[in-house]
Amino acid sequence: MIIKPIIPIWLMSIICIIAIFIIIFNKPLKNILLKKQENKSTERQRKLIMQHILNVCIKICIIILLFIINLRFMIPNGEVSVLNPNINILFVIDKTVSMRALDYNNGKERLEGVKNDCCYIVDKLPNCKYSIITFGDLAQRIVPFTSDTSIIQSEIKAISVEDGSYAKGTSLNIVKNSLEETLKNEKEKRGENVKFLVFFISDGEITMKNEKLESFSNIQKYVDDGAVMGYGTEEGGKMVWSLYEDNPASSSYYKHYYDENYNSHLAISKIDENNLKQLSSDLKIDYIQMSKTSNIDNKIKSIKKQIENSGVSEDTESFYQDIYYYFAIPLVILLLADFILQKRRL
Predict the structure, then answer these.
(1) Do residues 72 and 3 touch, judged by C-beta distance below 8 A?
(2) Which of 12-16, 138-142, 189-193, 316-320 has the lowest mean pLDDT?
(3) Stretch 172-191: mean pLDDT, rounded?
(4) What is the domain partition of the chain in residue ranges?
(5) 27-38 and 43-71 are packed helices; what angle lies between their axes, rounded to 10 degrees?
(6) Taking a C-beta distance cutoff of 8 angstroms, is the pair 255, 241 a contact?
(7) Contact (Cβ atoms closer than 8 angstroms) between residue 193 and residue 165
């Protein structure tokens, strides 16, 4: 038997304790006791006290059952052999404000191009496992490795740039530790026969003051293939600034900056291919400038050949069955009993 809590156990424990505390120290009991002191004990008062105690016990039992249901007990339901692909693809996606610059494929947002291109890769390479790391002010792994491509594509489409009002500036170095830890841990867990491909996706810009790109060469030993995918142009593009403004004619639609004399200027984001090429050199993977989706086709063909040659591994995987509904029956009965008691008191 295993548990898979819906709400974290610590949080559910706090919620239940607070609820029990409120139930026990509820005002109705105090009112009954006060009346009992003012007017001598009567049969009606004793019944009210007993009803209140019964009502409290029922409510506490309801909370305990909710806590148990939240634990989501599961029992074994057999085992099955599954085929696991040996090719694992990790998307590392830049979601800083500059990724909304309008210089992808004739004036589209860079991030729009990123989403289309990543989904295209997933469509063309369906027999792989995928994971996603995004980075802006923070680096975050939003999906662990999974062969469920629908989940991966849904998460890719849901990625949005960070709020420019709170952004601290762009740093490619911020994702370095997360990338290394992910690949190192997965390599140790999955074994040497499994290959890890990295698609590092960015415009290469670093806007943090006095910061330069650090070497990623120590991560190369965990990377078998992939590509650094560069977005943007040398001419650059205007950046869509507001997450809420839809009118391009509005002064707040595009990002502006102020010079030393406090004069407002339209901000332009340009691709930094030097940083991107350094990344590709450090990781020993190809650099591809992504002005259109078809630029990735040759890399996809190369990976398909690797998939054909790598084969798959066969594992035994246990399946579990939910049994929470066993606890739902007494929960419904207690809820009905509580409802009847409340009606009687009214």
Answers:
(1) yes
(2) 316-320
(3) 92
(4) 2-72+324-345, 83-315
(5) 160
(6) yes
(7) no
Closest CA to 110 of 132, 130, 95, 89: 95
Task: Specify which residues 12 forms β-bridges with.
Answer: none
pTM strictly above 0.70: no
Mean pLDDT over 226-252 rounds to 78
The one-letter amino acid code at 36 reads K
Range 163-169 contact pairs with CB under 8 angstroms and sequence separation of 24 or more: 163/243, 164/97, 164/241, 164/242, 164/243, 164/255, 166/137, 167/96, 167/97, 167/136, 167/137, 168/137, 168/208, 169/207, 169/208, 169/209
Distance CA 62, CA 338 (A): 9
**C-beta atoms surrounding 163 within 10 Å:** 13
**Adjacent-strand bridge partners of 264:** 258
Q: What does residue 274 show for φ and ψ, rounded to 5 degrees?
A: -60, -45
Tell me the pLDDT tens digit for each residue of 147-177: 889 999 999 999 998 776 555 667 899 999 9
Residue 46: both structure tokens together: 């004793």
Note the CATH number of domain 83-315. 3.40.50.410
* CA–CA gap between residue 5 and residue 72 (Å, rounded): 5
**Mean of all residue pLDDT scores within the chain:** 83
